[in-house]
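hey so u asked for the seq, here:
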Amino acid sequence: MQLGFVGLGRMGLNMVTRLARGGHAIVAYDRSADAVARAEAAGARGVASLDALVSALPGPRAVWLMVPAGDPTESTVAALAGLLEKDDVIVDGGNTHFPDDVRRPAAHRPQSIHYVDAGTSGGIWGLTEGYCLMVGGDADVCRRLEPIFLTLAPDHGYLRAGDHGAGHYVKMVHNGIEYGLMQAYAEGFELMHESPYKVDVAAVAELWNHGSVVRSWLLELAARALAEDPDLKSLDAYVEDSGEGRWTLQEGLERGVPLPALTAALFTRFRAREANPYAERMLSALRNQFGGHSVKKHDA
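ran it, structure tokens below
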């Protein structure tokens, strides 16, 4: 199948590579000429603009976007909509907030341009392991794109989750769960690391992947990281969030669904970015004020 692909970062380039290896004809574009050259080396046809990408594809076209959520995706969708024609399809594979997936197809319906949201999980390992795809959109349009989905995904790794927005909704919840799982592993391994038994945490991570009820791919990655650096001395305790955890928490508030584990995991990420946080300084000040407890002065 022929497919246009926009966005050739680490994940996008790996997806293009997997598709090209699967026999698909990929026309690839990125603002970085170096990224386009890497896509060409992987078997794609590189182009220098969105206009050239659209011109290189026969109709009805399909163009997959793998660009950052927010304004980059919004502007790229708008630019493509001005170039595409009736029955062409835009596939957003980034981490878009699901309400945008409901708004966009309605906006482009007068042009008869289709829109599909494809929640994509797999990270840098997707090239070899495959990508778990959670897809939303019209059933007929999704069925037309299945050769692409089935090449990207491992066996049983693709699902049309529902209408527009369903794919990114499921991916949003997926990432919320991921936050909680990672936080649970992080806290458990810290406790073992600080125990009086001098536990070999790398060995435990490997052990738990054999028959344990907590085994998982995340735990396999933990075992890999700990084997390389058991004390994790090479890393700073600074953890970003890409937005999906916040969206999941907002949706829980809207639906009245309690999400205590996700809430704690998300707020812990916020705290990880602070040095000498204000709240803890306030605790120290209060203990000193009411009980005369000693305080440590901060070196400015």
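Residues 121 and 132 are 5 Å apart (CA to CA). The first strand starts at residue 2 and ends at 6.
lmk if thats what u needed
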